[in-house]
Write a structure and sequence with these properties.
The chain has helices at residues 2-22, 25-31, 35-46, 57-63, 68-72, 77-82, 85-94; strands at 104-105, 108-109. Strand 1 and strand 2 (108-109) form a beta hairpin. It has a two-stranded antiparallel ribbon with strand order 1-2. It is mainly α and 113 residues long. The protein contains seven helices and two strands; from the N terminus they run H-H-H-H-H-H-H-E-E.
């Protein structure tokens, strides 16, 4: 029961973050990111708490269409409270994306692979 409540809280916070990010239509259009799809398909792999979980095929399909450096510019402290940037890089690389070392996502700097 406690885990279900925690997941609901995390999902609610993520949705609030998505609404805030989506409000910037210029940046959202620029990044061509489907933030809601990323949230629904990849949340279990990138949430801050818990172990690293390999991304699903559905998550990878969404991730492959995202401009990671552009999306990284949208990362705020609120996003980092919910999402692990280390796991985001892990998921991106697991899905076959090349994420350049030194790329900055919020307060996280991507290390060499």
């Amino acid at each position: 029961m406690a885990i279900a409540n925690f997941r609901c809280l995390v999902l609610a916070m993520l949705m609030a973050t998505i609404i805030l990010i989506s409000g910037n239509h210029q940046v959202s259009a620029q990044c061509q990111a489907s933030i809601p799809s990323l949230a629904s398909q990849c949340l279990s792999s990138v949430q801050r708490f818990g172990p690293k979980i390999p991304p699903s095929a559905e998550c990878c399909a969404v991730v492959k269409g995202v401009d990671i450096p552009c999306v990284c510019k949208l990362v705020t402290g609120i996003v980092e409270f919910i999402i692990s940037m280390e796991k985001v890089v892990y998921v991106g690389r697991s899905c076959g994306l090349t994420i350049q070392p030194g790329t900055i996502c919020g307060s996280y700097t991507v290390p060499p692979s």
